[in-house]
Design brief:
Blueprint: E1 7-22, E2 29-44, H1 51-70, H2 88-120, H3 125-146, E3 161-163, H4 164-177, H5 181-188, E4 198-206, H6 220-228
Parallel strand pairs: 1-4
Antiparallel strand pairs: 1-2, 2-3
């Protein structure tokens, strides 16, 4: 029986999105930009599946996944430009992430040290266990120290967020430069797509329930409809 060797096409995407929300502290609306990376794969049979067909298949997967991501809650992390505070969910996500990273880092480092010392210094199992426990506690504590705190942070600036009054001048600047506002803003923060990585805008997702301040064509729903075509 002949063996079929499948080929795989990988589509790497970096995406960015603006979100307009109401600050839970001062109740003022503000817009922030965030982004992330995703990888999508399509599998085909050599001589039968064309690269273009596989690329379209991977893109369909990407659009489906990005549609869910674009309207999922609690994405990104930016400080409210009015009251200089972070939203509660941003703080909780940061703490969970940093505590987890600190715990894992402390466990790995302590494990390496205890293992090496146990061999060379003939430490007992109890001492080794104690070192590992202390290492995880210290690592977790350090993670908590660098985690985001609510604030206020009066001396801190955050270029990833802007007030409503700043939006119109920003859009005018982007129009003059003929650039996509979402991608332009995300790039201005120092983010850069890697080589052979698609850079996609997910538009603006407004959850304030107030009068829209962004053009309809920049809305997430409209942008995703264009990606599906």
């Amino acid at each position: 029986m002949p063996v079929i060797v499948y080929k795989t096409l990988t589509l790497n995407i970096q995406y960015a999105q603006c979100r307009r929300i109401l600050c839970e502290h001062c109740r003022q609306p503000f817009t922030y930009v965030w982004g992330d990376r995703s990888e999508f794969k399509a599998t085909g049979v050599p001589l039968i599946s064309s690269d273009e067909g596989m690329r379209q298949s991977a893109m369909r997967q990407a659009v489906g996944s990005l549609t869910n991501i674009s309207k999922a809650g609690n994405k990104g992390e930016s400080m409210c430009p009015s009251c200089k505070r972070y939203q509660g969910w941003m703080v909780r996500k940061s703490w969970m992430s940093m505590l987890g990273c600190g715990f894992a880092g402390g466990l790995i480092l302590a494990g390496i040290v205890a293992g090496a010392a146990g061999v060379w210094l003939d430490w007992s199992a109890a001492v080794i266990l104690g070192v590992i426990v202390v290492g995880t506690i210290v690592g977790t504590g350090l993670g908590g120290m660098v985690a985001t705190r609510t604030g206020p942070h009066p001396d801190k600036t955050d270029e990833s967020a802007m007030k409503d009054a700043e939006v119109a001048p920003f859009l005018q600047k982007c129009q003059e430069k003929s650039v996509d506002p979402v991608l332009f803003w995300y790039l201005a923060l120092g983010n850069k797509p890697a080589e052979k990585e698609a850079f996609i805008s997910l538009g603006v997702y407004d959850t304030t329930g107030q009068r829209p301040i962004f053009p309809r064509e920049l809305g997430t729903t409209h942008v995703l409809q264009q990606l599906k075509q």
